[in-house]
Amino acid sequence: MKNNVLKKLFSKNSITIYIVVAIYAIFSSLLYTDNLSRQLTNMLISVSCYIVLAVSLNLVVGFLGELSLGHACFMSVGLFTGCISSVLMSNVIPSVYIRLPIAMILGGLAAAAVGFVIGLPALRLKGDYLAIVTLACGEIVKNAITNINMTVESADFEFNGAIGLNTNKYGIYIKDVGELLPYAIVLVFVTIIVMMNISKSKAGRCIMAIRDNRIAAESIGINVTYYKLIVFVLAAFFAGMAGVLYGHGNSFAAASKFDYNMSIEILVIVVLGGMGSVRGSIIAAIILRALPEMLREFSDYRMLLYSVLLIVIMILNANPKFADLKGNLSIPKIISRLKNKDKTVKEAK
Amino acid sequence: MENNNSSKLVPYPSNALVTERDLHKPPVLEVNHLGIDFGGLTAVDDFSIIIGRTEIAGLIGPNGAGKTTVFNLLTNVYKPTRGNILLNGYSTSGKTTAQVNRMGIARTFQNIRLFSKMSVIDNVKVGMHMSVKENFLSSLSHGFGYSKAEKIANERALELLDFFSMADLAKAQAGSLPYGAQRRLEIIRALATNPSIVLLDEPAAGMNPSETAELMENIRRIRDTFNIAIMLIEHDMSLVMGICEGICVLNYGKIIAKGSPDEIKKNPTVIEAYLGKKKEAQD
Hints:
Radius of gyration of chain A: 22 Å
Distance between the termini of chain B: 60 Å
Helix content of chain A: over 70%
CATH architecture of the largest domain in chain B: 3-Layer(aba) Sandwich
Strand order of the largest sheet of chain B: 6-7-8-3-9-10
Largest sheet of chain B: 6 strands, mixed
Number of strands of chain B: 10
Number of helices of chain B: 12
Shape of chain B: globular
Oligomer: heterodimer
CATH class of the largest domain in chain B: Alpha Beta
Structural class of chain B: alpha/beta
Radius of gyration of chain B: 20 Å
Number of strands of chain A: 4
Shape of chain A: globular
Helix content of chain B: 25-40%
Largest sheet of chain A: 2 strands, antiparallel
Number of domains of chain B: 2
């Protein structure tokens, strides 16, 4: 019994949670005591969004094994639906802090609905073809949003998709990172816990079975389309929620920003972090988002250095020797090594 | 309904693959004039077979005779051009492969198709996913009866693994198992779906004689314990003649003989299909 509890406390998933808790504890304590530099403060929300995006895309790419290149479009759908509904709700609910969670759920649902509509025909395709279709769908959604013109006179609200949404003007921009951070932390934890739970459940097993061998999965009665669609919709839901958070953390949002470049950026995080690894996605999101900021002092050479570093990380990641080294540094390995040492010491005595 | 049926003698045609103990029960599988054309090529034609409730049936034939195609037709991987399939009295036409499995046909594959990156026990648990009482919400939250459902699934999976003495391998990665164990795991996974008939596609391929003997023993045990029918494709004649109660011989997509192993051994058409004509042999 005691052994079981210990095992649970030091399982792979709990350790990931500890890491995230520790990171947030350090940064929020620094932030709330006013010891965090402005550069890092500004990054907190965007990195949190990227963690949610990467972890949710990992569900599609890592767990389901389908390449999706349109993840940014779900974020954009969520962002605009959530932010606009937040503005429209401002007469009913005056506080933006209460409207934000409602907007997040609405944005998530809108993104999930778009995910459903795109996924239903697209998920009949496999591999490269699915990637192409999701890429195209992402661009279609981007262009559709750019062409939306919307005026709500009762709320004195005007939205022009080509220009973008000025969140500052409509009072939904939360400037103080300290006020927005709790929402980000909750969203990140909900996402991580859901993703970890799903990998150890009936649904997760069915999803991984489809990834490992679709024909065999069908032969044991798994409804492949259903599970593929559920994964796609769930990932879109979280991307949409991240989008709403992102919208509230920036004074201005334009649809043109959420193009395939951003989708690729998220995919790079997932691939470098390791397919199917939640912890890897989190760490990669932090490093890859922090890198461009850290490299700011090299000004003109920033993106060049960033690319070179990406290549170095890729080479290291593909190197078996580096993988061994990484494996030896993992916590369970260290614990087992310490135990073995104890044993040999005792035996020697 | 069941009782009524069991008291009466189900009238079987003389060439049905039904042994005496199943004569009073309705068949598990009834296939009528099944056929499929690929373009202009007829791969399987006029394939009719009746399999009894607990029969061990063999499907043999020279290479390229269409044996695996028959399996693919039975599981609706290919949609039949002609004919129909009745499983436990229900037609499977228009159903997807997954639905056919849920109706009661499970299968293994000629080239092993395990979920190689998952653990052995997860392979079995994913097989019994229909009987695991978890909805999507409990999968996400690990609440709402998750732990109870997982516990039951774990116990049943271990039981199944233990039946084939593989319980100690439960945590191993399926892809890292030795060949024979992978074949066994595939059979366990098929059984986990709770089928009424299991189709085994060359279960003894690549096995040595002692492994084959163990496999024969296992197939008999499966039938006796789970009370299900088994249909197998095999080239190893010692296995086929050793355990099959009824054999169906296929050549060029057509059935050339049906009957008990002894009948098949003596059948001149079968001998001709496998060895060629007698006259040519003498010349």
